[in-house]
Amino acid sequence: MLLLEPLKPLKPLKPLEPHIPDKLSAYDLSLEEWQDWLKRNGEAAFRAGQIFDWLYVKRVGSFEEMSNLSKPLREKLTASFEFVSLTEIARQQSKDGTVKFLFELADKNAIETVIMKHNYGNSVCVTTQVGCRIGCTFCASTLGGLKRNLSAGEIVAQVVQAQRLLDATGERVSSIVIMGIGEPFENYDAMLKFLKLMNHEKGLNIGARHITVSTSGIVPNIYRFADENMQINLAISIHAPNDELRSRLMPVNRRYPFAELIEACKYYLRTTGRRITFEYALMGGVNDKKEHAEELAEVLKDMLPLCHVNLIPVNFVLERDYKRTERDDIFAFQRILEKHNIPATIRREHGSDIAAACGQLRAKHLESQ
């Protein structure tokens, strides 16, 4: 059984300084912001719709390709904005169709993006930060710490790049999960802008109910997100049924204790009437016993029918010392939850043969430098 170290108090998190590039990304602006920029630069506001069409429908890679814009306007755009440069460092393709990219940003930092094939369509998993400081003890994303937040445009560019790949076979991105490297609710404003850009009818027009954002439990921003009252799906990484165990697995729990997280979740349910998915990574001998399942059911019973548990067999990470729960024990855990009327599913694995778990490809890249 894994021996867990004694808990240490957490230092207060300092807000991240925003990343300020030399130029704004073409993907950073909403339609309304494009309209404002055009007016301020002596251009007709309706050109904003044309620019959006070139960016998200035709998916061009430069302003020069926007042939229905005047040359002087294209020159203004080139002088003021840039297309996010996502340079492909590595690409891995699984036998199940999963494609994982390691992209280099303009500042030489690296991020991951994953395309997952489902029977209902193609899902893209995006990254919101360069690295992560949440410190979950079973996750590779936190290896190397946190470098910076991504801009909304850098998150958007990941989906556009994925869609360009799918264009070759006439497919499209049908859903998005914000479950890549980083904590989305620590990069809240950029994440929210990304959501609105993806959902915009003149953009990629991905339905809100086909987008899921996952958080480790940044309590103040769960309240903010509830008050946005969007149709976006919310997932909470819970991974333990009580304070003591969750604090050992997820240090963020020492900053936002379990009881506070559960209260924030109940507020979200009351405010939105939308279901929450609770993600629970099963780790052999750590959080997968029958008593853990019983305790989890007790915690969630007051949220019925608006809760669902997604059981995740933990991914092997070389730098971590967790083992996967045995198959029979996974099903036993599921049966206990269902006995208490808690809906529970077991996540289908994607890309297990290419180390597609969050942060693994980037960790290998960092080691090689």
Automatic annotation (TrEMBL):
The keyword Transmembrane does not apply. It holds the Pfam family RlmN_N. SUPFAM superfamilies: Radical SAM enzymes (SSF102114). HAMAP family: RNA_methyltr_RlmN. This is Probable dual-specificity RNA methyltransferase RlmN. It catalyses: adenosine(37) in tRNA + 2 reduced [2Fe-2S]-[ferredoxin] + 2 S-adenosyl-L-methionine = 2-methyladenosine(37) in tRNA + 5'-deoxyadenosine + L-methionine + 2 oxidized [2Fe-2S]-[ferredoxin] + S-adenosyl-L-homocysteine; adenosine(2503) in 23S rRNA + 2 reduced [2Fe-2S]-[ferredoxin] + 2 S-adenosyl-L-methionine = 2-methyladenosine(2503) in 23S rRNA + 5'-deoxyadenosine + L-methionine + 2 oxidized [2Fe-2S]-[ferredoxin] + S-adenosyl-L-homocysteine. Binds 1 [4Fe-4S] cluster. The cluster is coordinated with 3 cysteines and an exchangeable S-adenosyl-L-methionine. S-adenosyl-L-methionine binds at residues 182-183, 214, 237-239, 315. One of its GO terms (cellular component) is cytoplasm. It is an enzyme of class 2 (transferase). CDD domains: Radical_SAM (cd01335). Its cofactor is [4Fe-4S] cluster. Its EC number is 2.1.1.192. It comes from Paenibacillus flagellatus. The keyword Electron transport does not apply.
